[in-house]
């Protein structure tokens, strides 16, 4: 098993997703779909079914990619215990956002230094997520 196998297994999925995007807007890498006031056009017929089939296939293969990564000695040797930053180091180095939270410090500038209606939006978003989770369960 080669070290790059997981990368190549994931590469075709990225191309497939880009293909969906191209079917929607006609461009592979440049946004040309969302416009002021809405979207440029309706979704092509059959696109949602194709995306659904892709997701079904992807979920079946994601465990295979994870197993390839977790059992790959080269991958594990290169990435295990790399980038571990303590709380003290994170504060000394001036980390913020995800890097700070990854070190174990719960910090969200949107909540600590809220502006305008951001608190309402964050609460509303969390409430929507909670409702979706409750429906799924």
Could you give a short description of this structure?
The chain contains seven helices and two strands; from the N terminus they run αββαααααα. It has helices at residues 5-25, 47-70, 73-79, 87-92, 97-102, 109-112, 118-136, and strands at residues 34-35, 38-39.
Number of helices: 7
Q: Tell me the distance between the termini.
A: 38 Å
Share of residues in strands = under 5%
- Main sheet: strands, sense, barrel: 2 strands, antiparallel
**Shape from CA axes?**
flat
Label the structural class: mainly alpha
Average of per-residue pLDDT values: 76
Query: How many structural domains can be distinguished in the coordinates?
Result: 2
**Total strand count, please?**
2
Instruction: Give the % helix.
Output: 55-70%
State the strand order across the main sheet. Answer: 1-2
Encode the helix/strand succession as letters: HEEHHHHHH
> What Rg is obtained from the alpha carbons, in whole angstroms?
21 Å
Low-confidence runs of at least 5 consecutive residues: 130-134
Layout of strands and helices, then pairs:
Blueprint: H1 5-25, E1 34-35, E2 38-39, H2 47-70, H3 73-79, H4 87-92, H5 97-102, H6 109-112, H7 118-136
Antiparallel strand pairs: 1-2
Helix pairs in contact: 1-2
Task: Give short descriptive properties of this protein.
single chain; 137 residues; mainly alpha; two-stranded antiparallel ribbon; 7 helices; 64% helix; 3% strand; flat
Describe this structure in words.
The chain is mainly α. The protein folds into 2 domains: 5-79, no CATH class; 87-136, no CATH class. It contains 7 helices and 2 strands; from the N terminus they run αββαααααα. The protein has helices at 5-25, 47-70, 73-79, 87-92, 97-102, 109-112, 118-136, and strands at residues 34-35, 38-39. It has a two-stranded antiparallel ribbon. Helix 1 (5-25) runs antiparallel to helix 2 (47-70). The longest helix has 24 residues, at 47-70. It is flat. Residues 130-134 have low confidence and may be disordered.
């Amino acid at each position: 098993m080669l070290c790059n196998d997981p990368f190549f297994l994931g590469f075709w999925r990225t191309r497939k997703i880009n293909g969906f995007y191209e079917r929607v807007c006609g461009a592979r890498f440049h946004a040309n779909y969302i416009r002021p006031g809405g979207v440029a056009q309706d979704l092509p017929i059959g696109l949602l079914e194709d995306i659904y089939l892709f997701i079904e296939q992807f979920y079946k293969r994601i465990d295979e990619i994870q197993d390839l990564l977790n059992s790959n000695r080269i991958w594990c040797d290169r990435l295990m215990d790399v980038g571990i930053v303590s709380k003290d180091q994170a504060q000394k180095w001036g980390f913020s956002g995800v890097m700070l939270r990854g070190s174990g410090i719960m910090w969200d500038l949107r909540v600590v230094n809220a502006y305008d209606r951001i608190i309402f939006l964050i609460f509303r978003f969390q409430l929507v997520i909670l409702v979706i989770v409750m429906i799924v369960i």
